[in-house]
What we know:
- By secondary structure, the protein is mostly helical.
- 84% of the residues lie in helices and 0% in strands.
- It has three helices and no strands.
Amino acid sequence: MTLFSLIQQINITDKVKHAPDASYQIGIVIGTFLPFVILVGIAYWMYYRAKNRNDNE
Length: 57
């Protein structure tokens, strides 16, 4: 598992510093935060569904 985590480490500030243009920088930021935003959205949806199921009973 540690080998996999070492492979996955990415230095975002280094990528942004060496980016060829602004579009690439925006893509890096979106690609970094999008998975987090999706997971938060799924967690909220699950919470909302569970809360409504208890209210209906």
